[in-house]
Structure formats: C-alpha cells, structure tokens
Amino acid sequence: MTRISKTWLLAGAGLAGLAAPLNAQTVPAEETAAAADSAATTAADAFTPGASDIVVTARRRQENVQDVPLAISVVSGQTLEAQGTYNINRLTQLQPTLQFYSTNPRNTFINIRGIGAPFGLTNDGFEQGVGIYIDQVYYNRIASATLDFVDVERIEVLRGPQGTLYGKNTTAGAINITTRAPSFDFEGRAEVSLGNYGFKQGKASVSGPLTDTLAARISVSNTDRRGTIYNVATDQHVNSQDNLGVRGTLLWKPAEGLNVTLSGDYNLQNPICCVQIYARVGTTQRARNRQYAALLSRFPDFVRQYPNNGVPSTDPFDRLTNLDADIAARNEHGGASARIEWDLGPGTLTSVSAWRYWDWGPKNDRDFTGLPIYTKVNNPTKQKQYTQEFRYNYEGDAINFVIGAFAFHQKIRTSGIQETGTAASAWLLNPTSALSNNPAVLNGVLAENDIRLDNTSLAAFGKLNWKVTDRLTISPGIRINYDKKDGFYNSVVTGTASNGTRQIVSNDPASPSYNDPWTAAQRGVQASQFFEVPYSDWNLSYDLNLAYEITQDINAYATYARSFKTGGVNLNGVPSQANGLPQLDVAVIKPEKVNHFEVGLKTQFWDRRATLNLAGFWTEIDDFQASVISNVSGSNVLRGYLANADKVRVRGIEADFAIRPSERFSGYLSGAYTDHEFKRFTNAPCPPELAGGGTGTPPGPPATPGANSPANCDISGQWLPGVSKWAFSWGTEYNLPGSLLGRDGQAYVGYDANYRSKFSSNASRSIYTDISGYSVHNFRVGFRTDDFDIFGWVRNAFREDYFESLAVTPGNTGLISAQLPDPRTWGGTIKFSF
Fold first, then answer.
1. Interatomic CA distance for residues 96 and 75, integer angstroms
2. Is residue 808 within 8 Å of 769, Cβ to Cβ?
3. Beta strand 726-740 pairing with 743-756
4. Which of the two residues, 94 and 226, has the higher pLDDT score?
5. CA 536 → CA 56, 588, 614, 808, distances in Å?
6. Rounded CA gap, 43 and 783, in Å?
7. 354, 560, 596, 667: least surrounded by Cβ within 10 Å?
8. What does pLDDT average to over the chain?
9. Among positive and negative, which fits the CA dihedral 29, 31, 36, 37?
C-alpha cells in the first residue's frame, strides 16, 4: 500500500468520530477553576456529554476557551500522559501548525504557522518569536523545551501575535504551560512506563496541606532510553535519553484573597547525543576534486574500511553511523519563582518574580564523517536570566482590563572551542596545493571563542475588553518595549607556522605571520576575529480585537495586530573586509515588523457534544530575520550569520473539530492549510547546487562541478523552510464499562495520528533537502478506574521512515546529513492516583 493511500485510509477511520485537542479535557468550569484545591478528574469523567467548558488563562484571566477570541488549542495533562507526549517535540503531533526542529538542545527552533525563529542557525544574539511560559514565567532559552514535562495540568498553544499580554517576542504565538498546583487535600500520583530500546520512565507527585494555610507539592520525573542509532566506530548507541526533572511548589494563603506561590525546579538531560547521520550526497558547483567522493578517495584506508561511500550504510534508516569525535549533550537548567496574587477591590494584583539558569555542555562531530577533520566543535554555554512582572486585572460588568510592566535581564557566556585533526589538510585545503598533502598544516588548528551577551528588556502593556453590548466586545491592546543588547565576540585562532612555531592566525595583513604559507592556508579555514556590538531600540506593539456572540454557542472574532520581534546581534562571527577587520555593518539584525490579520469562528452544537472552530489568518513580516551566507574576503570560507529578508508572507486556514456523542466514544480532527513564501529576499544564501564554485560571471548551471557560483541568490517567491502546506492531526477513543481484579472501570482503545505534506529543510530551498510528506500513527489499549490506569502503547506503529530535518554540511562538499525521529516504539504504562 502506498504511503498516501495508507495515510488517508487511516485518516478516514479516524473521522468516524472527530474531536480536537482543544477539547482534550472537558471539565466543568467550576471544577477547573478550583483545580488548585482538588485532584484531577479521571479520563472517564473528563468526557461527559454536554460538559464542554474548558477554562484557560490565555488572556491572563480565567475564561471558557470557546469565549476567548483567538486561535488557541488546549491539551490537558491527562491527554499528554495518555499519548506519551512528555516534551514539546511530541506535542507537535497534536498541533498541526506547531513546528519543532532540534538537532540538539541549543540548536532548537519552535515555530507557529511557519514563523518564529531563523531556520538552521544557532546564534546567542537573536531571540525566538514563540514565547514559552511555565507558570507565568518567561523562558528565554528554547533549550528548556527539550526536557520532560513535570506534573503538567494543561498546555495552551496561542497562535498569532500575543505581544500586548505576553512578555516579549511573541510575534508568532505563545506556549503557556501550567503545572498542577499544591492541594489542600492530600493526594498523590505515580506512573511507570517500560518499553523497547530499554525505555524506562517514572513519574511521581505528592501534594497536601502542611498547615491550614500552607500546602505543598513535589514532583519528579525520570526518563532513560538507549540510543536509536548505532555508532560502529565507538561501539555505542547514540541519541539516547537520560532526563531527570524535579519540581517543588508551596502555596500559602495567609488571608482571604491573598495567595503566595513559591516554586523551584531542577532539570538535567545527560544523554549520549546528538548526532546527525549520512542521508545522501549531491553535486555542488565546487571543483570536481573538492566534491565528497573525490575527497573521500584521498583516504584509501578509510574507504577500504567503509566502502559504502565512507559510511557503514548509505540507507539512513539502517540507523548506523561511524562518527569519530566524542558525543555529549549535557543540558541542565533550573530556577525559582515567587508569584503573589492579591485581590484588591474589583481586581487582582499579580507579581511574578523569577530567576533561571541554563548550563549547556556539548561535544559534537561537526564534520559529519568518520574522519578526524574536526576533532572538537563545542560551544559550552552558561546563562542566567531574571524576570519581574506586575499585572493588575480589573473585572467589571462592561469593562475589564489588564495593565502591567515587565522587566527582563539575561547574561549569556559561551566559551567555544574548535579544533582540526589529521585529516583536515586533505579535506579542507585545495587538492592542487601541495600543503593539502601535509597533515601537519591544519592538524591542531585551535579556535578558542569567548562570546558574551548582556540583554535587558523593559516593557509596559495594557489590554482592554469593552463589552459595548451584550453581544459585542471591543478589545484594544498596546505594549511599549525597550531592548538593549551588548554583544562581545572574541575568537582567537592559533596554528603551527611553517617554521614550527605556534602563531595567531590573523586576517590582519600587518600580522607578522600573515604571509607564511601555512598560516595563509589556516586563515582560509578559520581566522581570529574580535568585535563588540551594541544594540538598543524602542518599539510599539498594538492590536485590536472584535468579538461578537452570534448565539450562546457561536462566537465570531476579527483581529488586527501590529507586532515586533526585537532586533539582535550576530555572535557567531561576521564576514571580514579586505583589510581584515570585521564587517560590522552586518553585526546588527533589525527587528521584525509584523502586520497580522485574523478572523475566526468558534461554534458548539448538538448539546455541546460537538465543537468546530475555524480561523483564517494573513501575516506579513518586514525585515524577517533569516540565515544568510557570505564569502570571507580572501579565503574560501563561507560565513553563516543572520540578516533581514525584505518581506515574508504567511496565510492560511485552520480548523479544529471535536465530537463526543456519548460517554463511550470520542474523536478529533485538526487541520491547517498554510501558504507561505518569501515575498522579497534578493540576497539569500544559495542552495548547495548553486554554491562552492568560482566567483566569475555569469553563474553556471546548478550542480555543475567547477561552474561559477552567484554571490547570493534571489529566492523571492520560494517556500519558507520547515513549513508544510498541509498538516493534520486526528484520533479516536472508544471505551466499554467493565471490571478488572474486582474493580469497576473502563476498557478502552485509542488511536492518534498526524500527517504533514512536503516541506523544505534548508534556509534556501534545495533539490537535495526537500522532505517528503509523512504520517505517524499511534495506538493504545488499556483499562482504567478512578485510581489506576494500565495500558499498552505503540508509537509510529507502521514504522514510517522519514526525516525530521536535512542539513547541508560545512564545506559544501555535497554531503547532506539527516536528523532521524524515533523508529517504532512500544511498551506499557501503569498509573496510580489517590
């Protein structure tokens, strides 16, 4: 059966009962509002026909999700646990317009509707366009998204600009995660899962009163699994999981209307990770003797060991590699917060104070081969951030509003290292040069990087909801933001000169060793660079929302938003000028300017057994922050950095449909059509088939060795990277009453799946990096009662072979690397609660 026919056959089966993740937990409003003082409802209770009120805090106050006039999806903690969604990467299987790409925790991107972060380039000096908030605390480092969820009550995914209510840089949307609050009734829960690949996961939490006014909750989560890729060179499985999370919370109620919540958490991820493996080899415009196959032939002993193009297998789905460098991805983060909520008159004053840290310790193989070309390319990073937010929420009959102030300060310190090995000369230098035959020329060339960022942001914001009539509400919002960044980049490169002395490799023609032939060769690979770059700017965001209640169960809305994502600084190095000085005019990235239009319809019918929500959106972004590549003057080095594309447009339609005809059956379908393109981007990086050749004119044909290459490419009208035109999520669950071990409950079977169509996986679309459409199907079967749930599960049940991402490796040799998802996994889970 073909992939497409299999996908739509199973989708049709899922359509027998449709429901959206936004209705994943349908708990009566009064119970949800009191969730802090009560145990979570069981899955059986969660799907009572006619009970359709889901209370969210998307607009910084409690509201029924169907009354919130914006595109929002809500997933309960119960649904996350049932479907094995224990981090944001897995959340994308439930959210069609949420895109998540991660080759390691630092190199992680989250986009909504195709926008949010530049694709494929890690840089300390820019910020994401999707804000992540956990218990109202803004997480600036996206690396936190790769760790396991700990004791989550619900996740709200807000689509579209949210700048007038949420911290900073939410031009694409926000992910609002709420953990379970301490309870004044003693309760506990525990969960154990075992599966193939040595998968072991345990979760536990306990909560209860310490005094009449003080309650506590402590939660812990641990996940361990061996890697799904086997490295034959080191005899170990890589891309494993080794995650630990601990969270503690105190809730103090010293007086009526006054709540104080203190939270602290610690999280550690320490796997053998993260590698990308051989996917394919294409042809570039480099000289033929500098293409992958020709370079490989210079290492006959290695080729005899790995005759299949230098790798154990040219089929990436054999999941084999032979990378030779050390691999590690230690990712530690934690912090503490204090939230005070005080009822003052007709409103509530809220203060949220937080401190967080992030400690990243990687080891990588960035030549993506089993040869000692680069023996180290590591960028260990430490970050500390401080946030303070004040809000006052006023609730009146015809008027309610939120006003507030937000302050953020961040320090990032990266101490990177890059070192070349004995294969570097033959691989990186022009084979026509005699120096390429001398391993000593590039062996041990060392770049030691000191990268620093001090980042401060201040803001004042307000949002008004004016109920003009019983049916019409007008909601304007405004935010003024000030950002200041101070960037520091110092890369000191040293190598051995032809006379055997250790020299600084400099771009400065006045350097004493500038004309030494060995130093000149080293400079063509990596040279010292130093610069400091400041950035500061004000911007004003505003929006206007109109909401109209057509009937009690049908609500329409329209929104216009003018939003900004702050500018930034390039902290991965910049191109050098002919005089050796850094090209500082590209060191600053201008802010993105967003114009967003959206209309939506939220409906419920059949006694609220069914929900259908529709949204249409049109977003245009000026000065879109994107990846570019430039030749370093006087060398063959390509330098990647961030710059601004003139204009980007994303538009589309989304639909969420849910149905619960009885207590026995439920289902969902969510879908999105997204039309996306660079409206104008004339100085974009060229794809590999148009890069690596000579600098003459005119440019030669694509994929022609030795042809001339354009300095940059006009990709106006091309796709944005990482975005599928079509994306769907669907699933069903059916249950029957029964008994097990003398306990009454429900036997159930569940099915969930997702599909996305072809998308580009390169900053500029390439013939080598399009990823074909794919679908993933998951099943579970079990028995549950009010206090326990036991079930078996299989994920990626049909063993779909697909790529999460494809990347052009450094040097433009034609080698394309792949990031692979999980293969088919299966196991069982037991959950208890009391």
1. 13
2. yes
3. antiparallel
4. 226
5. 35, 10, 39, 34
6. 11
7. 560
8. 88
9. positive
Percent of the chain with pLDDT strictly greater than 70 = 90
Joined tokens for residue 67: 């009354």
For residue 109 the two structure tokens come to 């991107």
Structure tokens at 749: 């079977």
Q: What values do phi and psi take at 323, rounded to 5?
A: -65, 140
Rounded Cα gap, residues 291 and 269, in angstroms: 37
- Cα-Cα-Cα-Cα dihedral sign, residues 128, 131, 133, 136: positive
Residue 264: other Cβ atoms inside 10 A:
16
Residue 405 neighbours by CB distance under 10 Å: 13
Query: Per the structure block, which two tokens stand in for 635?
Result: 């060398």
**Is the model's pLDDT at 85 over the cut of 80?**
no
Cα–Cα distance list, 523 to 290, 492, 507, 508, 632 (Å): 18, 12, 7, 10, 10
**Segment 226-234 mean pLDDT:** 97
- Report the Cα 153 to chain-centroid distance in Å: 21
Q: Which two tokens stand for residue 112?
A: 């909504």
Separation of alpha carbons 74 and 63, rounded Å: 13
φ, ψ of residue 426 in degrees (nearest 5): -70, -30
DSSP string, 126-153: ---SEEEEETTEEE--GGGGGSPP-SEE
CA distance 734 to 340: 42
Q: Which two tokens stand for residue 295?
A: 């370079």
In this structure, is the dihedral angle defined by the CA atoms of residues 751, 752, 755 and 760, taken in order, positive or negative? negative
Secondary structure, 3-state, 659-703: EEEECCEEEEEEEEEEEEEEEECCCECCCHHHCCCECCCCCCCCC
> Structure tokens of 825?
């996994």
Question: Strand, helix or coil at 3?
Answer: helix
Structure tokens at 809: 């490796």
Pair 114, 723: CB distance under 8 Å: yes
* Residues β-bridged to residue 220: 204, 246
Neighbours of 817 (CB within 10 A): 22
When computed from its CA atoms, the radius of gyration of the chain, rounded to whole angstroms, is: 27
pLDDT digits (tens, 9 = 90+) for 594-638: 999 999 999 999 999 999 999 999 999 999 988 776 544 334 445
Q: Which helix (H) or strand (E) holds 539?
A: strand 529-551
What is the C-alpha separation between 600 and 121, in angstroms, rounded?
34
Beta strands 588-589 and 568-569: pairing type?
antiparallel
> Do 112 and 97 form a contact (C-beta atoms < 8 A)?
yes
Higher-confidence position of 58 and 138: 138
DSSP state of 295: H
Instruction: Give the pTM.
Output: 0.90
Nearest to 603 by CA among 615, 590, 616, 612: 612
718 within 8 A of 705, measured Cβ to Cβ: no
Q: Which two tokens stand for residue 78?
A: 């119960």
CA dist 443 and 448 (Å) reads 15
Q: Of 339, 337, 181, 178, nearest to 260 (Cα)? A: 339
Most confident range (mean pLDDT) of 44-58, 581-595, 660-674 is 660-674
Cβ proximity of 722 and 765 under 8 Å: no
Closest CA to 62 of 32, 95, 90: 32
